[in-house]
Amino acid sequence: MSGVSYTFSPGGWKESIYFFFYKKKCPCCHEKLRKEKKTISKGIIIDEVVENIKTELNAYEIEYLYICDQCNKTYTIVELTKIAF
Ligand SMILES: [Zn+2]
């Protein structure tokens, strides 16, 4: 079994809106950003689904990075959201 969680920081609704509805452009040159998926392994976690029944989950987080090939810069969704709002 594996579990996936999308990570948004506290107050992450802005990031969610940005993530789903905004066009991702470079803050410097306004070129379209290239999206890259980064998987961060969180290792094995023990999850107690029902009382006394425990399952092992191979947990990992997915983070998206936005890359501008023009400026050779990498942005996270958190950084882009701060600039956009
Ligand atoms: Zn750029």
Entry keywords:
2 helices; alpha+beta; binds zinc ion; 85 residues
Describe what you observe in this structure:
With 85 residues, this protein is an alpha+beta fold. Helix 1 packs across helix 2 (77-84). The protein has helices spanning 13-21, 77-84, and strands spanning 2-6, 34-50, 53-68, 73-76. Strands 1, 2, 3 and 4 form a 4-stranded mixed β-sheet that branches. The longest helix is centred in the N-terminal third of the chain and has 9 residues, at 13-21. The protein contains 2 helices and 4 strands; from the N terminus they run E-H-E-E-E-H. It has one domain (2-84). The structure holds zinc ion. Zinc ion binds next to loops.
Brief rundown of the structure:
With 85 residues, the protein is α+β, with helices and mostly antiparallel strands. It is 20% helix and 49% strand. The protein contains 2 helices and 4 strands, in the order βαβββα.
Structural class: alpha+beta
Radius of gyration: 17 Å
**What is the element string, with H for helices and E for strands?**
EHEEEH
Mean pLDDT: 84
Ligand kinds: zinc ion
Strand content: over 45%
- Low-pLDDT residue intervals, each spanning 5 or more residues: none
Helix content: 10-25%
Number of strands: 4
Q: What does the largest sheet look like? A: 4 strands, mixed
Query: What is the count of distinct domains?
Result: 1
Q: Number of helix segments?
A: 2
Silhouette: elongated
Gap from first CA to last CA: 38 Å
Summarize the topology.
Elements: E1 2-6, H1 13-21, E2 34-50, E3 53-68, E4 73-76, H2 77-84
Parallel strand pairs: 1-3
Antiparallel strand pairs: 2-3, 3-4
Zinc ion (ZN) binds next to loops.
